[in-house]
Amino acid sequence: PRKVIIDCDPGIDDAVALAMALFDPRLEVVAVTAVAGNVSSERATSNVQAIVERLDPPRYPRLGAASPADVAPVVDARHLHGDDGLANLGLQVSKLARQHPSEKLICDEVRAAPGEVSILCLGPLTNVARALSRDPGLSEMIGRLIILGGSVKAVGNVTPCAEFNIYADPASARAVFRSPVTKTLIPLDCTEQVTFTLDLLEQLPPEHSRAGQLLRKLLPYAFRSYRREMGLESIFLHDALAVVAAVHPELFPTVDMAGDVETIGELTAGMTVFDRRSNFRGRGDMEVALEVDIAAATDCIVRSLAEAGRQ
Ligand code: BDR
Ligand code: CA
Fold first, then answer.
1. Directed axis angle between helix 126-134 and helix 170-178, to 10°?
2. Which backbone phi and psi does 10 adopt, to 5 degrees?
3. Which three-class secondary structure state does DSSP give residue 69?
4. What is any one of the record's Gene Ontology cellular component terms (predicted)?
5. Integer Cα distance of 182 and 116 in angstroms
6. Closest CA to 280 of 254, 249, 300, 257
7. Cα–chain-centroid distance for residue 60?
8. Which ligand is nearest to the CA of 191?
9. What's the pLDDT tens digit per position in 272-297?
10. ipTM
11. Cβ neighbours of residue 29 under 8 Å, at least 6 residues apart?
12. Alpha-carbon distance 33 to 13, whole Å?
């Protein structure tokens, strides 16, 4: 199996991604690291532990704690995910484990198996940027970063042109985009093509399974908040697509592009910018997915959740 670290800010779609990855025999999730984003750093940390405890996967990953952001976050997404990030279920952890800071755990796990560990970035890029600045040699040792975020079409989901994960910490996103790590970007252009209607609820794992119990409480909340906040009858499961990309990269045709992040624009902070000029002579050092095989990706998510329910 491929070794991965999942860096996330749970978040309902983060929880879905964890349920998929933790039971997938093709992946070995060596660590799950929390980052502030959808919710605060404290909440993200306890949510990661609560989800992993509820799912109780066959192989327990190490857990990393989110440190507070350097700059107070300007945004969260509690209107979509619930005040606690997880559908207001009030999930408690048995006892908050003593954990390493996420950025340290990232450094340790990557150094323990140089070149073999990829990182699925499902939240703001704060932890990855910190890990790279703490240990610059790390960039050569990370297998691949699969970054869920940004928007090539430049239509955002939190401001007119910025996507949430990038907008929440643009300085870190810029540092990561500019680092020499091998990167794949899964932007909104892909994730908003894969939509789920209410019949997803019937395809979830059964109530008696651990994954079923959790997902059957989380997902109805997402349908309600998407309807309330955006007037939509279907939902996106953005972060789940990053897990699909890790297992089935062939479902995401990519283009090599040079990408950067606007950090200070009055209207454009957090926007991802790609140089697509015909006379551009630089190097396109980021694989950017502009399309996704919608049917196959949908099927992959549903099957993967069903598999989580069989364990
Ligand atoms: C991203 O924003 C968050 O709310 C989701 O968890 C996802 O990671 C999509 O823009
Ligand atoms: Ca997320």
1. 50
2. -60, 130
3. coil
4. cytosol
5. 12
6. 257
7. 19
8. 1
9. 999 989 888 888 889 999 999 999 99
10. 0.99
11. 4, 5, 6, 21, 22, 57, 59, 61
12. 15
Pocket test for ligand 1, best of 148, 188, 189, 221 (most atoms within 8 A of CB): 148
Tokens 């199996």 -> residue: 1
| Among 67, 142, 71, 89, residue whose Cα is nearest residue 111 | 142
List beta partners, residue 254: 289
Q: Estimate the crossing angle of helix 294-309 against helix 210-230, to 10 degrees.
A: 140
Cα dist. 129→138, 201, 263, 286, 309 in Å? 11, 36, 14, 16, 34
- Report d(CA 161, CA 309) in Å as an integer: 37
Mutational test site, ligand 1, from 8, 47, 86, 122, max ligand atoms within 8 Å of CB: 122
Q: Write out pLDDT tens, residues 235-250.
A: 999 999 999 999 999 9
